[in-house]
Amino acid sequence: MSTENIHSDHNNFLVVLGGGESGVGTAILGKKEGYHVFVSDKGKIADHYKQILEEYQIEWEEENHSVERILKANLVMKSPGIPEDAPLVNLLRGKGIKIISEIEFAAKFTTANIIGITGSNGKTTTTKFTHFILKNGGLNVGMAGNVGQSFARQVAETKVDHYVLELSSFQLDGIEEFRPNISVLTNITPDHLDRYRNNFQEYIASKFRITMNQTEEDFFIYDADDEVIAKWLSENPIRARKLPFSLQKEVENGAYIKDEQIIITIDNNHLTMPTSNLTLEGKHNAKNAMAAATVAQLLRIRKETIRASLSNFQGVEHRLEKVLKINNVQYINDSKATNVNATYYALESMESETIWIVGGVDKGNEYAELLPLVNEKVKAIICLGVDNRPIINAFGNCVDVMVETRSMEEAVNEAYRLAEKGDTVLLSPACASFDLFKNYEDRGRQFKDAVRNL
């Protein structure tokens, strides 16, 4: 395709760094909105994305960045996976070229009501939960961000009244004016510190960017029991109206649990339902449910619909997903637990003796907080990683049986051998998956396949 026309119009040249879901979505929306678009990926672009770019007649390159050309951009959309301090990114900044995230770019082209959801854990479940209730309530609603199709692509190709967006800290790092009408912060625990120069404060600030452009007309829903969030809010005033949720205390506006009832109040409008009706088990899921139901109540979904949705929601694949019961042993896939805090929730919700499959790429994990739960609930540990030393050092004295494995099949067979009637086998790795698997989905699917093959 000829490149001449691109250089002739200097006001509208959009460069997209990264040819994955968010990059391709941005390219499609950019093209639709009249930009000249060029997609550049240092790695390989997947074939199905290449096809889409060809269909839309968008230029692309892979395994290379044509730096000179990229530096002619008026605007650059950087995919969330590219670090903030990558050499090309620094070069662009040095030239004063504006770099934004897909979320920032796409938000400018929609008038839909935006619900933004972030947090170290629980954000996917809360996003899907919220979308499920709003859809059941008859709203015309899309779901994007870290789940499903990219936000930019949906803005380009569909017309909805509301978006529920799951937002990572990396996506929030690239926003300037993005302003959700309702924002949700599920919790903050140390995660991805490798990306934030091991500075927890930077990571916290990154999460709170979700509310930075909100005004008094907007709402901020958050976990009032989370000490990190409470401390930040006590030191940094925000403009949005606060709606906390809590398992520990009563709140005037927001959500809490009392006498096994969830109680949600917004300006004297009350919703109650018994916690026993929630399909998802565990305290963290009660919190996810409260956050989602608070959003639904703000958007005036009928109370019967909210109650019915909370008791029908099936949860998220790879998140405490019950796979099969074999010989009265329950196998649970929690592959999405890529940090210690997520695994804490998983172990906390175990009600029987547990054989725990753990390990992978350790992001500087502190395992100490798991020790009491491991002592109480875990009878055997199966390490599944290339380097299992941190796990062996942390838990070697807690359990009688510790096995090292190098494949999912081997791990599941070991678990099968060790499990007795009434036990649970839990895959909850507390680590990233890249040493032995493509990603956490691949790890979870391999687990499910191995269990079904027993």
Secondary-structure map:
Layout: H1 4-8, E1 13-17, H2 21-32, E2 36-41, H3 47-55, E3 59-62, H4 67-70, E4 75-78, H5 87-94, E5 98-100, H6 102-107, E6 113-118, H7 123-136, E7 141-145, H8 151-157, E8 162-166, H9 169-173, E9 182-185, H10 200-208, E10 219-223, H11 227-235, E11 241-246, E12 254-258, E13 261-266, E14 269-274, H12 283-298, H13 303-310, E15 321-326, E16 329-333, H14 340-348, E17 354-358, H15 371-377, E18 378-384, H16 389-395, E19 401-405, H17 408-418, E20 424-427, H18 440-452
Parallel strand pairs: 1-2, 1-4, 2-3, 4-5, 6-8, 6-9, 7-8, 9-10, 10-11, 11-12, 16-20, 17-18, 17-20, 18-19
Antiparallel strand pairs: 12-13, 13-14, 15-16
Helix pairs in contact: 2-8, 7-12, 7-13, 17-18
Task: Summarize the model shown.
This protein has 454 residues and is an alpha/beta fold.
How does this model look, in words?
The protein is of the alpha/beta class and 454 residues long. It has three domains: 11-100, Rossmann fold (3-Layer(aba) Sandwich), CATH 3.40.50.720; 104-310, 3-Layer(aba) Sandwich (UDP-N-acetylmuramoyl-L-alanine:D-glutamate ligase); 321-452, Protein-Tyrosine Phosphatase, Chain A, CATH 3.90.190.20. Helix content is 35%, strand content 22%. The chain has 18 helices and 20 strands. The protein has a nine-stranded mixed beta sheet, with helices on one face. Strands 15-16-20-17-18-19 form a six-stranded mixed beta sheet, sandwiched between helices. Helix 7 (123-136) packs across helix 13 (303-310). The longest helix has 16 residues, at 283-298. The chain is globular and about 65 Å long. The N and C termini lie far apart (53 Å).
